[in-house]
Amino acid sequence: MRIISIVGARPQFIKLAALSARLSEKHEEIIVHTGQHYDYAMSEKIFSDLGIRNPDYHMGIGSGTHAAQTGAMMKAIEEVIINRKPGLVVIFGDTNTTLAGAMAASKINIPLVHVEAGLRSYNRNMPEEINRIVADHVSDYLFAPTETAEGILKGEGLSDKTYLTGDIMVDTLSNYLPVALEKSKITRELEVEGREFNLLTLHRNYNVDNPEVLVNILDQLDLLGELIIFPVHPRTRKMIVQTDLSWKNISLVEPLGYIDFIAAQHYSKRIITDSGGIQKEAFILGRPCITLRTETEWVETVDTGWNLLVDPRGSNIGDMIMSFRVPGSQENVFGEEVSSKMAAIIDSI
Ligand code: UD1
Description:
The protein has 349 residues and is of the alpha/beta class. Helices cover 46% and strands 15% of the residues. Helix 1 (10-26) packs across helix 7 (168-183), helix 1 (10-26) crosses helix 16 (338-347) and helix 4 packs parallel to helix 5 (127-138). The protein binds uridine-diphosphate-N-acetylglucosamine. The site of uridine-diphosphate-N-acetylglucosamine has 18 residues, from helix 1, helix 5 and helix 11.
């Protein structure tokens, strides 16, 4: 079967890596990159770290308002679908690229797989929440990463299309962690070898687009008095540059490649983030995670005591972080051998 996989933003490359390796065994896979992420560190570097071949189509769409970005992607994706006539289209996660792929494929009736279906934050201020809801409801095969996600899809009347596969990021992480621990020199490069450090990431619109919230977070984290390594997303960098401030204990660095980032997570003392994927990776790597959000889609990480939600607008961020303790053990909530399960379903379509 001819399959078109559509990606565009960093977390999608990470999800594609594990699945693509399986799909290309039995199918003709066409990789489409919308160009939503275009900085070297956010795109090419991740492709090369993960050994993903060059995309067959690179649309170079780049930044824009939601409608302008999504609309341009839809138009370009539709053209590829019409020309290449795939038997199946695969979309990942919840970005504007996901939404564009979902709309373009479903409207011309091409069977559609949504990887990482059934996530809900119930916060409509997140563009991702709208993207997920639409993607789930127009897709034909919903690959749910967790039992919670499976339950949500069933609750929305999508039982017939739902498959509990586990989370594809488990496979990427287990494939690349040994390589990262052997090859990455990131702790030496950041001069944190043998030292305790926190790892921070921030990119959510509601945390970084409003300078008051962003500065509140960074001021309070600085007061922890502990070293914090902060690979800065381009969206966040733009705001920080505008504030013209700096923080004593926070070391701002460029976004890391995948291999270096998972090594940095492994060696960190705790992870502070507003990312979805990093909450999962922290859990799988057994690192305490502080999520600077008031809700999460990954409720299992909170319910099992490994992830703490902290209000980014609050005044007690430091106290909450310092008093957070994780349990001694954890259960497997994200599954295993996930790409094989997904590939088996796709093979039978
Ligand atoms: C996007 C996704 C989010 C995902 C995140 C991972 C949407 C709505 N959001 O957020 O779900 O968790 O990716 O990183 O799709 N920019 C650059 N260089 C880049 C990429 C972006 O400078 O390589 C700038 C753009 O100019 C833009 C801003 O960052 O103004 C935001 O980029 P965008 O792709 O819209 O959203 P992200 O914040 O990356």
